[in-house]
Design goal:
CATH topology of the largest domain: RNA Polymerase Alpha Subunit, Chain A, domain 2
Structural class: mainly beta
CATH architecture of the largest domain: Beta Complex
Helix content: 10-25%
Shape: elongated
Strand content: over 45%
Number of helices: 6
Length: 404
């Protein structure tokens, strides 16, 4: 009886073992057959512990965004139940020690335990890490709105500079650091606090750049405006020998100034600082500053104007004139004889004038007023509309006058 009972127990155990092994085989092989893959793309990668970077004097370009693609494997029902928004990808920046290219692995969380991450692309990212650079910058104060009582904003200035911090690429994009102040219906000079921003050449905020302080004190000064003429500036030094200043021009020739009414009432002209022409042999163009009295500012630009000093070469030309007129000769006399029929005339003037001068532009004559019959030595008179007569040869002619 005992032997039979043991045999039955063994049979039961065998049946249970076989059944369990069969079920296990079904699970393993059946699971492999039923596994599917699913791609989830463009998962944004969060860069954590960036504060740790800043503590080491490091930063990253926040304009660059990083993404990864996942390939998941699991049963169809499990894959279908996945909420893609619950999947997170992160890179921990705390282990970065210095500037350079950092290639960390991406950590993915939020994938259910019964689903396998089969592939991550890329497995690691290439992140550029920069040393934080600093740059002091003056703040440009912009005003919006209109003051009351016809007043104008004649000065809007920040009382302090700001320090920009960021990577070198971001700092290079900064074209303007400014703060905007609302002056609508303002009646008196005012102190206002305004937020500061760093902007690129298109007026967009440059990300990755911080301004310290982010709020600055600004001083707004109100007054009136007035357009005034600029006086022709003086010159310093001497042009080269053989050259001459022929003209001085200003651009602009007028400026719009601002100030308190009692300051501007007697100002109608302003001086411009002298321009050096030392040794010049050609036109000189320089920027020069407008001389501003205390309490006066230029409201339509800066205090620089373009000064052009025209410099021309002086040359001498020689002409042989064979037409000599006799002027103021008495009506009962005539010229019997003259010692010379040709006169050499040298004229000095600006090269552009001398190159256009012709013999017909030169008048040569003898003034015979008061002369009687007989022989006379008469000075030669030369006139020209261009240049200056420097030599006449001969300077006098001997002439014989007789009765008609």
């Amino acid at each position: 009886m005992i032997k039979r009972k043991l045999t039955l127990n063994n049979v039961v155990l065998i049946i249970i073992s076989v059944t369990f092994a069969f079920l296990l085989w079904l699970y393993v092989n059946g699971g492999q057959i039923d596994l599917l893959t699913q791609d989830i793309n463009n998962i944004p990668v969060a860069l954590t512990n960036q504060d740790a970077l800043a503590e080491k004097g490091l930063t990253i370009n926040t304009d660059v965004k990083y993404y990864v693609n996942l390939r998941l494997k699991g049963q169809q029902t499990k894959l279908a139940s996945i909420d893609a928004s619950s999947i997170k990808a992160e890179v921990d920046m705390k282990d970065v020690r210095s500037a350079g290219t950092f290639q960390p692995e991406v950590t993915v969380t939020g994938v259910p335990n019964n689903v396998v991450i089969d592939e991550i692309k890329p497995e690691s990212l290439s992140i550029e890490v920069y040393e934080i650079e600093k740059k002091d910058q003056k703040v440009n104060v912009i005003t919006s709105g209109k003051p009351a009582d016809g007043l104008k904003v004649i000065a809007a200035e920040a009382t302090e500079t700001v320090r920009l911090e960021g990577d070198n690429k971001s700092l290079a994009k900064v074209a303007d650091v400014s703060a905007t102040v609302d002056v609508q219906n303002m009646t008196d000079d005012t102190i206002r606090f305004a937020n500061v921003g760093a902007y690129d050449k298109d007026g967009n905020v440059v990300s990755g750049v911080t301004c310290n302080p982010s709020v600055v004190e600004t001083a707004i000064t109100l007054g009136i405006t007035k357009k005034v003429e600029l006086n022709t500036p003086k010159t310093k030094g001497e042009v080269s020998s053989g050259y001459k200043i022929t003209d001085i021009k200003l651009e602009p020739s007028t400026v719009l100034i601002g100030g308190k009414a009692n300051v501007l009432q007697n100002i109608n002209h302003l001086d411009v600082e002298a321009v050096s022409v030392e040794g010049a042999v050609a036109n000189v163009t320089e920027s020069s500053r407008v001389v501003l009295p205390n309490g006066v500012v230029i409201t339509d630009g800066n205090d620089e104007v373009k000064v052009t000093v025209s410099v021309s070469q002086i040359i001498e030309k020689s002409f042989n004139i064979d037409t000599i007129e006799n002027k103021n000769l008495s009506g009962d006399l005539q010229v019997e004889k003259i010692s010379e029929s040709t006169v050499n005339v040298k004229i000095e003037g600006l090269s552009e004038e001398m190159n256009q001068l012709k013999p017909s532009d030169i008048e040569v004559y003898l003034d015979l007023s008061g002369k009687r019959e007989g022989t006379h030595t008469v000075p030669i008179t030369v006139k020209t509309t261009k240049g200056k007569v420097t030599s006449v040869s001969p300077s006098k002619l001997k002439i014989e006058l007789v009765k008609k």
